[in-house]
Write a structure and sequence with these properties.
Length: about 375
C-alpha cells in the first residue's frame, strides 16, 4: 500500500508571497527613497489613490471570506494573489516616487506612517489565515464557537485598521501637499493657542491687568474661533496690527513668575496671529499637485522651511511657558529672543507669494515684524 500524501495547500504560496512583500515594504520605509530615475515619473498621489481604493475593496472581500463558513482556500488565495500583484507593489511604488524634494517632507512623512500602518494591518489579517484553514469548516462545539468569536473579533479589528488607513490614504491623495500641510498648521496653531490660554489662566487675579489685553492695545485680528481651522478664515487676519505696549525690561533671574507673565503674553499672542494669516495666504494657495504637474523644487523647499518654523513655534512656546512657571527670567528672555529671530526668518521666507510677487500678506508681514520687534524691545539683538 502506497503511503498517503497530502496535497499542498493552495494558500501556501500566496501567503508567503504577500508576507514577503509586506515585510519588504516595512523595511523600505525607514529609508528616504532615492530621486526617481524617470524624468517624468508617475504622480505618486494618483497612484496612492488607486492602490488604496483597490486594497480597500480587496480587503473587504477577504474579510467576508474569512468570517463566513465554509472556509474556501481557493477563493482566498485568489484575493491574496490580487493584493500581491497589484495593491502592495503599487504602494511600494508610491514610496519610491515620494521624493521629499518633489512632494515635501511633511507629505512624505505622512505617507510613511500610513504605509507602515497598512503593512501592520495586513500582516495581522493574513496572519489569522493559517489557523482558520487548519480548523476547516466542520461542525463546531461550544468551545470551538467561543474560539470562533474571538477570531471573528480579531478579523474585524485587523480589517478595520486596514480600512481606516485606506480611507486616510485616499483622503491624503485628494488633499495633496497643501491639504496635508494645512492640517499640520492647524494642529500646531491649536497647541500655541492652548499654551497662551494656559498662561493667561495661570494667574487669574492678574490676567485682566495686562496692557496687551486693553482695548487700546489689543490687535483687531485677535478674534478667536472655536477651532483652529476656522481661525484661518477670520476676516480680519490681515488687518494692520495696532501699536504695541512699550517694552519693559524682563525682571532678573529667579524673579516672581507673576512679574514675568506680562512680558511673555504679547509676543506669544503675536505669534498666534501668524498661523491663520500664513494658512490663508501661503498654505491654502500653494500650487496643486496633479497628474501632469507638480510644484517646483524651490516652492517645495520654501514650504518645508515654513512648516519647520511653524512646528518649532509650537514646541518653543511650551518651553517658554515652562520657564515662566519656573520663574527663570534668563530662560524666558533667551527663548523669546530665539522665537523672535525664527519668526522673522519665517516671515521673510514667504514674504512673496508663490509666483514671486507681492500681495496683501507681503505688506502685512512687514508691519507684523515691526510689531514683534517693538513688543520684545532689544531681545535678540
Amino acid at each position: 500500500m502506497l503511503p498517503s500524501t497530502s496535497s499542498p495547500s493552495p494558500l501556501s504560496t500566496p501567503l508567503a508571497t504577500l508576507t514577503t512583500l509586506l515585510q519588504t515594504l516595512q523595511s523600505a520605509l525607514p529609508h528616504s527613497p532615492p530621486p526617481p530615475s524617470n524624468p517624468h515619473p508617475p504622480n505618486a498621489l494618483s497612484l496612492l489613490h488607486d492602490s488604496s481604493s483597490l486594497l480597500h475593496a480587496q480587503t473587504t472581500k477577504l474579510s467576508l471570506l474569512l468570517l463566513n463558513r465554509p472556509f474556501t482556500p481557493t477563493a482566498i488565495a485568489s484575493i491574496l494573489t490580487s493584493i500581491s500583484s497589484g495593491c502592495v507593489p503599487g504602494l511600494l511604488s508610491v514610496w519610491e516616487l515620494c521624493d521629499a524634494r518633489l512632494y515635501s517632507r511633511v507629505l512624505r512623512d505622512e505617507i510613511r506612517v500610513l504605509l507602515r500602518d497598512t503593512a501592520a494591518g495586513l500582516l495581522a489579517l493574513v496572519g489569522l489565515i493559517p489557523q482558520l484553514e487548519a480548523q476547516g469548516g466542520g461542525r463546531r462545539g461550544e468551545e470551538e464557537e467561543v474560539e470562533d468569536e474571538r477570531q471573528r473579533e480579531e478579523i474585524l479589528q485587523a480589517t478595520g485598521q486596514v480600512w481606516r488607513v485606506c480611507d486616510r490614504m485616499i483622503a491624503v491623495a485628494g488633499m495633496g501637499i497643501a491639504g496635508v500641510a494645512a492640517e499640520k498648521v492647524d494642529a500646531w496653531h491649536a497647541l500655541v493657542k492652548d499654551a497662551v490660554e494656559e498662561i493667561e489662566s495661570w494667574d487669574p487675579e492678574n490676567s485682566e491687568g495686562s496692557s496687551f489685553e486693553s482695548d487700546s492695545s489689543s490687535p483687531p485680528t485677535e478674534k478667536q474661533n472655536s477651532t483652529a481651522a476656522k481661525a484661518s478664515n477670520t476676516n480680519n487676519t490681515l488687518s494692520k496690527p495696532s501699536p504695541p505696549p512699550p517694552p519693559h525690561p524682563i525682571p532678573n533671574n529667579n524673579a516672581n513668575p507673576h512679574a514675568l507673565k506680562p512680558h511673555i503674553l504679547p509676543p506669544l499672542k503675536l505669534l498666534r496671529m501668524l498661523y491663520p494669516a500664513l494658512r490663508k495666504r501661503r498654505i491654502a494657495p500653494f500650487p496643486p499637485s496633479s497628474r501632469t504637474s507638480l510644484p517646483s523644487e524651490t516652492q517645495i523647499k520654501t514650504l518645508d522651511e515654513l512648516l519647520s518654523h511653524l512646528q518649532a513655534f509650537s514646541e518653543e512656546t511650551d518651553e517658554v511657558a515652562g520657564a515662566l512657571y519656573d520663574g527663570d527670567a534668563q530662560a524666558v528672555e533667551r527663548r523669546l529672543a530665539g522665537l523672535r529671530v525664527r519668526a522673522e526668518r519665517c516671515v521673510d521666507a514667504v514674504r512673496l507669494d508663490w509666483g514671486g510677487g507681492e500681495d496683501a500678506f507681503s505688506a502685512w508681514s512687514g508691519k507684523w515684524v515691526g510689531r514683534m520687534r517693538e513688543t520684545m524691545g532689544a531681545l535678540g539683538e
